[in-house]
C-alpha cells in the first residue's frame, strides 16, 4: 500500500473512533476532554505512528519492550507520550524507563522496586498505573483486586515514580460494563488514599463505550485504528 493510501485508511478509522468516543461521552454525560485516546501501535511500523501523530494523536501505546524501544527511538522527534501497556518483566525495567512516560501494567512490588530504581538512575519520573486483574486471575497480568490498594501504596512511596491510577483489561466471558464498574469502585478507593491518582485506563477497540460509561479516562485502542493484527510469531 502507498503511504498516501495508508494515511487515508488511518484517517478514516480515526474519524470513526472519534465519533464513537464522542457518542459514548454524550451518552455518559461526560466531556470529550475527560478521555485520552491512546493509540496502541504494537505490530505496526513507525511509519504508522508518524501518520497518527500527523493526524493529531499525542499518546501511543506498546506492549512489548523490544519492539517499543526501537519504535520510540525512531519516533523520538515527534514529542509523543509513550505508554507501556504489556506484561513487564523486571529485567526490562531499565529499557522501558528509557522511553515510557506511563507504565499501565504495574502489578507487583518487585516490579515497582525495579522501575523505581531505574527511574531514579535515569533521572526520570515515570507515571505508573496499577493493573487490576478483574477476574482475580493474574495469568494475563494484573494484581488481584484485594491486592490493588497495597500495590498502589508501594508505587506512591517509590522514588522516581508517580502513582497515576489504575488500569484493567475486561476479562473474557464477562460483560465489560460490569467488570469496568468494579474497576471504577477500585479506582475510587485508590483515589481516596492518593488524591492525585485519577487515571482509569480501561476500554479497547471492542468496549470503548462501556469503559467511558464507567469513568475511563484513558482508552487503549489498536485494532479500530490500525486494523486487525497478524497473530504474533514469537
Ligand atoms: C493490544 C492491547 C490493546 C489494544 O487492543 P485492541 O483490541 O486492538 O484495541 C489495549 N490494551 C492492551 C493491554 C493491549 O495489549
From TrEMBL:
Residues 28-228 form the Alanine racemase N-terminal domain. HAMAP family: PLP_homeostasis. PROSITE patterns: UPF0001. InterPro entries: Ala_racemase_N, PLP-binding_barrel, PyrdxlP_homeostasis. Belongs to the pyridoxal phosphate-binding protein YggS/PROSC family. One of its GO terms (molecular function) is pyridoxal phosphate binding. The modification N6-(pyridoxal phosphate)lysine is found at residue 42. PANTHER family: PROLINE SYNTHETASE CO-TRANSCRIBED BACTERIAL HOMOLOG PROTEIN (PTHR10146), PYRIDOXAL PHOSPHATE HOMEOSTASIS PROTEIN (PTHR10146:SF14). It comes from the Bacteria. This is Pyridoxal phosphate homeostasis protein. SUPFAM superfamilies: PLP-binding barrel (SSF51419). Pyridoxal 5'-phosphate (PLP)-binding protein, which is involved in PLP homeostasis. Its cofactor is pyridoxal 5'-phosphate. The keyword Chloroplast does not apply. Keywords: Pyridoxal phosphate. Transmembrane segments: none annotated.
